[in-house]
Write a structure and sequence with these properties.
With 243 residues, the protein is an alpha/beta fold.
Length: 243
């Protein structure tokens, strides 16, 4: 495989500060008269270059934490700061631009567009962000596909790829704009154990190149591949340790 592409050089507001900082995060969902507390006073700091796994039972709040970090959802209370930016102060349009520039997201079910080729899917975030000229976008997308071992599959549709290959395209897509942070929401959950381990190999290599990686998983053997393990239960962090 080619060398994985790390984050683009860019000054951080404070090199000694956490890349991710959740401060007393509460998230409450309401259905009719019922209210459910998905997160209950969560404090979490993640430093540049870390590889962190978040584990916990179904419904514990793992995905909600990712949604806070990526700005996909907003907290009911508390403060979210990522790469020096207070997400709560951003408009939806600014938040969408920030997300495309700063965070690469890898989902469990790939979420590739079925009518686009692997190369087109890998280039899509650059098209949305309107970054680089078209020729440069194709070149970058091709480099990222080669980095995940799919340099010869750029003209294939998702339906012509295996599950593991589709997830690798999703990782190449997450790399599109050179993000400082990659987050994975059960990125191996739809794969067999062997292919899932290979996906973690890719994320580990990416982390070694300088990208901060944070992922949630139910698989403790895969979580052990991270350098830090955060355990959440009933919306609260109940464990945080080096592996």
């Amino acid at each position: 495989m080619a060398t994985l592409v790390g984050p683009e050089p860019a000054p951080t507001p404070d090199a000694s500060a956490p890349l991710i900082e959740l401060q007393q995060i509460e998230k409450r969902y309401r259905t009719g008269k019922l209210e459910y507390g998905a997160l209950r006073g969560v404090d979490l700091s993640v430093w540049p270059g870390e590889m962190v796994a978040v584990v916990g039972p179904s419904g514990s709040g793992k995905t909600t934490i990712l949604n806070m970090i990526t700005g996909i959802d907003r907290p009911s209370a508390g403060r979210v700061v990522v790469d020096g930016c207070d997400l709560g102060s951003m408009s939806e349009d600014r938040l969408a631009r920030w997300r495309g520039e700063t965070v690469g997201i890898v989902f469990q079910f790939f979420q590739l567009l079925p009518t686009l080729t692997a190369l087109e899917n890998a280039a899509l975030p650059m098209d949305f962000a309107r970054r680089w000229k078209p020729a440069e976008r194709w070149e970058r997308a091709g480099t990222h596909l080669a980095a995940v071992g799919l340099g010869d599959k750029g003209d294939h549709l998702p339906s012509e790829l295996s599950g593991g290959e589709q997830q690798r395209v999703a990782i190449a897509r997450a790399l599109a704009c050179g993000p400082k942070l990659i987050v994975g929401d059960e990125p191996t959950g739809n794969l067999d154990s062997e292919t899932g381990a290979l996906m973690l190999d890719l994320l580990a290599r990416l982390n070694e190149s300088g990208t901060t990686v944070l992922f949630v998983t139910h698989d403790l053997s895969l979580a052990a591949r991270a350098r830090r393990l955060v355990t959440i239960k009933d919306g609260r962090i109940v464990g945080d340790e080096a592996t």
